[in-house]
Amino acid sequence: MPARKGSRKRERRQYSEDEKTRAVADVPELGLCAAARKHGIPNSTLHKWVGAKGGGGAAEPRAPESPGHEGSPRAGGPAVRYTPSQKAEYLEYAAKHGVTKAWKKHGVSRFTLYDWRRKVRLAAEGKGPSPTSGPAPQDIEALRDKEILNEWHRHPGWKRQATDRRR
Under 8 Å CB-to-CB from 20, ≥6 apart: which residues? Predict the structure, then answer.
């Protein structure tokens, strides 16, 4: 098959052992992406080298990969559920000090803070529930009673023990 007009076959880049060692050594300090950029190496190539050197990759501390994650204590971490009181606290802090400072201090995504702020505004307009208010006390008591009864029904021996105690 003839080569396309204007296209050239790309040659594979060869890296010396010294280049590989220096790039892998920068990963713990800079993070994979930043080290790859510094040395002009594709991320996937550096990732393979880190794995081959026994670095494991995932256990290495990461530097921020994009400007949007700078300073974030939880960038790319697992999902977290916040209580209504935590949400209210973080929103109050964001109102006083700004969303970026709240994000950096509490580790809550700026997008999450903006979403909570929007939901609070909509709740004030009567267009939905507020993220900063939990269930009503009656609902909590009803749920607790239901859970207790379900547990009691799942363990028939408890019924017998309870009736034996009454005698």
Answer: 49
Task: Go through 89-101 and write b for each residue having 16 or more CB atoms within 10 A of its CB, e for each that does not.
Answer: ebbebbeeeebee
Question: Mind listing the pLDDT tens digit for each residue in 54-93?
Answer: 654 444 444 444 344 444 555 556 677 888 888 889 999 9
- What is the spatial distance between Cα 141 and Cα 153, in angstroms, rounded to a whole number? 18
38: Cβ contacts below 8 Å, ≥ 6 apart = 23, 26, 30
What pTM does this model have? 0.39
Residue written as token pair 């977290």: 80
Average pLDDT, the chain: 78
Question: Could you give the 3-state DSSP secondary structure of residue 58?
Answer: coil
